[in-house]
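In this section we walk through a basic example: taking a raw amino acid sequence and producing a predicted 3D structure, encoded as discrete structure tokens. The instruction is simple. Fold the sequence below.
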Amino acid sequence: MSTALPGPCDGAAPPDAARTEAPHPRLILATCILASSLAFIDGSVLNVALPAIRTAFGATTAEAQWVLNAFTLPLSALLLIGGAAGDLFGRKRVMLWGIALFTAASVLCAAAPSLEIFLAARALQGLGAAMLLPNSLATLSASFTGEARGRAVGTWAAVGAIAGAVAPMLGGWLIDGIGWPFIFLLNVPIAAAAIALGWRYVPESGNPERPDPDWAGAVLATIGLGALTWGLTAWSARGRLGLVDGAALAAGIALSLAFLFVERRRGAHAMVPLAMFGSLAFVGLTLFTFLLYGALGGLMLLLPYVLIEAGGYSPTTAGAALLPLPIIIGLGSPSMGRIAARIGPRWPLAIGPLLVAAGFALAVRIGAEGDYWTTVLPPLLLISAGMAIAVAPLTTAVLSSVEDSHAGTASGLNSAVARTGGLIAIALLGFVLSRQDQALVGAFHGAALAFAALALASAAIAFTTLGKGRAKPPRGTA
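The resulting token sequence is shown next.
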């Protein structure tokens, strides 16, 4: 998901057999924060950089969509398998290899002589992120206990949100000053520090007794999701469904069905155990996450793009315009987590998306001539307030909706679903990105109303599928 924030369950620590407090806890926390910040920064700064990258490569509408989705696709499809590989082969090892791959791919992005090489490097970045993100969090879970674990995970999530918040403005400043390639070179010193600290101070951990990763499921999920994304991207960019596009969509659907068949055969050893979907609450929360975070991911792409292309904003100003979203979510989420623990997640997860829907509807006032304070800020404040109400209760609700044995998988899957929602939303936005000037603004207004409908649907799903009882607290918190 291309947002300036961690995913909804990125901050939910999975259960772990290790309970011994590790030495050098602050350096371990710093390593995990630096590692995960690579993915959070990259996922947010590209929204501001897209117009400049598109111009530099002379990219078509569909190619511009792949600038974002080439990263999000492997991250969404392989996030769970990355965590499983860390359990089996060592979390420190997989995390460090993921950082190294991400860094090498970042340098290749900056130096890419063609769009094809650039997109390949973006895909390698996504693969590296799928390796480092789940294992940075799992390393925290293995290295801290009790209240210390809760504080460590909370700090990890908060700093990740701050990094993602600052990144668009910093990236815009780099684009305005020395050019877009330097937003990728920014990753190099961060990664070097993470590797140096991780190599020296992070203890190895894992769960070698777990079954082998579900490689067949991972391959089917990646290729199937890729085919669906490719077909939807080509369809939305051209405005019509061609024979090749339709064949890609059909192949994606067929591969997705094959994925479900494989997961059913593997049972409890599957990448996505289907037994989790025996819970109506979990099914509802999965749909809720897909719709709400799909709408949010679409907005985070389109808003800075429209501000730059139609509103005449500089990349720096467009990045600064997004600051209210992560700030309000970061400030509001802790208290909403406590409230949801007392009253249950049903009402927060119904009310939050209603505010988000109102914000999307109000975004139709954003235009080429409008003032930021009267046209852009009010809908952004509503969306931010709604997400602040929903983010923490969603994490609690997901962990409460499945058996304890599935808690880690459920949190990882929910995070992957959030990113997949953004992936599909971006694939469908070609009809907006292909427009210019006033036509771009009009298409953005139509997309904003569609996003409002998705947010309303997510509110209805939460209200009808969640019970009225209190939720148990997420694992790893006091």
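Looking at the output, two observations stand out. The chain has a mean pLDDT of 89. Residues 215-272 form one domain. In the next section we compare this with other chains.
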